[in-house]
Design a protein that fits this description.
Helices cover 48% and strands 13% of the residues. With 255 residues, it is α/β, with parallel strands linked by helices. It has a seven-stranded parallel sheet, with helices on both faces. The longest helix has 23 residues. The model has no long low-confidence stretch (mean pLDDT 94).
Length: 255
């Protein structure tokens, strides 16, 4: 079996590390992207960092790219403009920047990470989501400066989901599958940091989960790996909730 090559952001911890272990366990090669400790070290909150990440992946490739998992993100406990800069603009810059390398490979795929907070958080700001999807980073960061961290987080993740779906035609015509997942709370440093926050902490464990427990990083990495695989060869433009049933519980008639 030919070894496949994937670019994965956020590989130094949490979900990114879990996906890396799963892919490498299958014999695949992973080009990791993170602030430090990865094959490509870059700051996705900044334009120059995003360009450096793309260039770094290109430099390490000896051909086309089989897949991309844009996982790097920050939580709502951090400053709102940073949340939007990383979670939306960093994620989408990486996805779009590596698209030319993906379209060179038949059967290539890409997965982005949204969140089930997009349907749970009533404070989502439509103007912030619209600014993100329109690609107006200056406006988006300006709006984010006036909102709480949870609002910035959920809004940025809703923008990710919409941006992915709006690329369905372009990417489909190029033969590259593009999907997103919407995880619920799972064991991670990001979740721990949210729990430690005076405002967010009391709310974290109030999220109802029909399966009765929070997930693990590996339980979220598994469906990402599947979406990147040939077994998901006709799955394109989808948003998969990986949240133990929370979204279905809250919105049983949404379909």
């Amino acid at each position: 079996m030919t070894q496949r090559t994937f670019a994965v952001s956020g590989v130094s911890s949490g979900l990114g590390a879990a996906l890396r272990a799963r892919l490498e366990g299958q014999g695949d090669r992973v080009i990791g992207i993170d602030l430090r400790g990865a094959e490509v070290n870059a700051d996705l909150s900044k334009v120059n960092g995003r360009l450096a990440a793309i260039a770094g992946v290109e430099k390490l490739l000896d051909g086309a790219l089989d897949g991309v998992a844009s996982i790097a993100g920050v939580g709502p406990h951090l400053e709102s403009p940073l949340v939007v800069a990383v979670n939306f603009f960093g994620a989408l810059a990486l996805i779009d920047g590596l698209f030319p390398l993906l379209r060179m490979r038949e059967g290539a795929a890409c997965v982005a990470v949204s969140s089930n907070s997009i349907t749970l958080d009533p404070t989502v700001r439509a103007d912030l989501v619209d600014a993100c999807v329109a690609g107006d980073e200056a406006l988006a960061l300006s709006i984010a400066g006036d909102v709480a961290g949870n609002t910035a987080y959920a809004s940025s993740k809703l923008a990710v989901a919409r941006a992915i779906r709006r690329r369905t035609t372009l990417w489909g015509e190029a033969g590259v599958r593009l999907n997103a997942i919407a995880p619920g709370p799972f064991a991670s440093a990001l979740l721990d940091a949210s729990r430690a926050d005076e405002t967010l902490g009391p709310l974290v464990d109030l999220v109802p989960i029909p399966l009765g427990r929070q997930g693990s990083a590996d339980e979220v990495a598994a469906p990402i790996a599947w979406l990147l695989s040939e077994e998901a060869s006709w799955v394109h433009g989808s948003l998969l909730f990986v949240d133990g049933g929370t979204d279905a519980l809250i919105r049983p008639n949404a379909i």
